[in-house]
């Protein structure tokens, strides 16, 4: 197989970026089909992508024998069952994070993948970001001694229109939607430990409709891991300055930080008001190159039969921790994880 023939499901906010990347920036992939139940999204695909086949159902796309692998950028509630359907149809699968909002679905999909003849990977894009990779390699080389503490935050620019409120009820809440990235990062940078205890709390600072669904727009969390390592997370939907994702890892011999100044570019302005730079507006500007690297990693791993950097167990553990954080935030109690 010289190129991996891909069918992409989901052409929403992120799916369209995936389509453009797979069509133009992943040389060993060929985007041969897309599917979406929404006519305006299929029209976008017809107008934008030079691809032969556009389906209106996922099932029709799976029936196409000319597809080797499926990429899922569909709503999270569909991920686990679509992974299983794709594997049963004899396709390899890449799925956007998170694997599911429910732990049982995660476990079922992971068990299904373990028995399947084709392979499945859940993406956590930050692992493919150059700065996070460099930090990981520095830690692996012993650069900070034994790492024992991660602080990591995912904080989004406030949206005065509150448009995200439409998606909030199905997002799983701030910890499953946003902090799940930090959870996966923390495990990766600390040597993939399992969590034993979590505590989370939060507040509604700007968007009162979140109260009705027991969600918050600013959340903080503490995780204790089985090996004694610790993590602290902050997630926010209300930042005044921009998208501000950053991480510190502290070890016995030093500390490494990623993204401390979420600068949009290398311009720095100095005047009578001080020194300043502009800030990234959203996650996509921050991680655009990493999405391409992640897609290339998936394609290379399938074509060359090499391991994925992320296992299905990693995806299950990230959801297990994020679900416990949501439970703790809603109950006000710490959650012990067996
Ligand atoms: P969206 O709601 O904008 O797009 C979802 C897409 O799925 C739409 O095109 C919709 O028509 C399509 N769809 C719905 N049912 C379908 C079905 N049965 N078969 C095929 N397509 C179907 O959502 P968005 O923001 O693009 O998110 C998609 C996924 O990407 C989510 O799981 C989300 O967690 C993840 N995501 C990850 C980010 C990251 O930083 N890695 C950032 C944003 C989203």
From TrEMBL:
Residues 4-124 form the Gfo/Idh/MocA-like oxidoreductase N-terminal domain. The keyword Oxidoreductase applies. One of its GO terms (molecular function) is oxidoreductase activity. Residues 139-335 form the Gfo/Idh/MocA-like oxidoreductase C-terminal domain. One of its GO terms (cellular component) is cytoplasm. Gene3D superfamilies: Dihydrodipicolinate Reductase, domain 2, NAD(P)-binding Rossmann-like Domain. GO terms for biological process: NADPH regeneration. Belongs to the Gfo/Idh/MocA family. PANTHER family: BINDING ROSSMANN FOLD OXIDOREDUCTASE, PUTATIVE (AFU_ORTHOLOGUE AFUA_2G10240)-RELATED, NAD(P)-BINDING ROSSMANN-FOLD SUPERFAMILY PROTEIN-RELATED. This is Oxidoreductase. Keywords: Oxidoreductase. InterPro entries: Gfo/Idh/MocA-like_OxRdtase_C, Gfo/Idh/MocA-like_OxRdtase_N, NAD(P)-bd_dom_sf. Coiled coil: none annotated.
């Amino acid at each position: 197989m010289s190129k991996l023939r891909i069918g992409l499901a989901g052409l929403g906010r992120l799916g369209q970026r995936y389509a453009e990347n797979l069509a133009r920036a992943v040389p060993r992939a060929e985007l041969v089909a897309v599917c979406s139940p929404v006519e305006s999204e299929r029209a976008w695909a017809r107008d934008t992508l030079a691809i032969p086949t556009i389906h209106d159902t996922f099932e029709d796309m799976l029936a196409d024998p000319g597809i080797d692998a499926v990429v899922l950028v569909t709503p999270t509630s569909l991920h686990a069952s679509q992974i299983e359907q794709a594997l049963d149809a004899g396709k390899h699968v890449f799925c956007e994070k998170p694997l599911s909002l429910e732990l049982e679905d995660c476990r079922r999909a992971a068990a299904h993948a373990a028995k399947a003849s084709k392979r499945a990977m859940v993406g956590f894009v930050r692992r493919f970001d150059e700065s996070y990779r460099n930090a990981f390699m520095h830690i692996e080389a012993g650069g900070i001694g034994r790492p024992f503490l991660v602080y990591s935050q995912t904080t989004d620019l406030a949206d005065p229109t509150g448009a995200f409120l439409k998606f909030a009820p199905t997002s799983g809440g701030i910890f499953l939607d946003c902090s799940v990235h930090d959870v996966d990062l923390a495990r990766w940078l600390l040597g993939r430990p399992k969590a034993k205890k979590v505590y989370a709390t939060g507040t509604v600072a700007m968007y009162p409709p979140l109260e009705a669904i027991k969600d918050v727009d600013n959340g903080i969390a503490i995780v204790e891991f089985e090996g004694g390592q610790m993590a602290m997370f902050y997630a926010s939907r209300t930042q005044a300055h921009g998208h501000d994702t950053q991480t510190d890892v502290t070890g016995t011999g030093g500390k490494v930080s990623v993204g401390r100044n979420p600068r949009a570019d290398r311009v720095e302005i100095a005047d009578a008001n001080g020194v300043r730079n502009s800030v990234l507006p959203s996650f996509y500007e921050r991680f655009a190159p990493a999405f391409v690297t992640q897609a290339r990693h998936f394609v290379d791993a399938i074509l060359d039969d090499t391991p994925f950097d992320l296992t299905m167990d990693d995806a299950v553990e990230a959801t297990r921790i994020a679900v416990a954080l949501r439970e703790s935030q809603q109950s006000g109690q710490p959650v012990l994880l067996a």
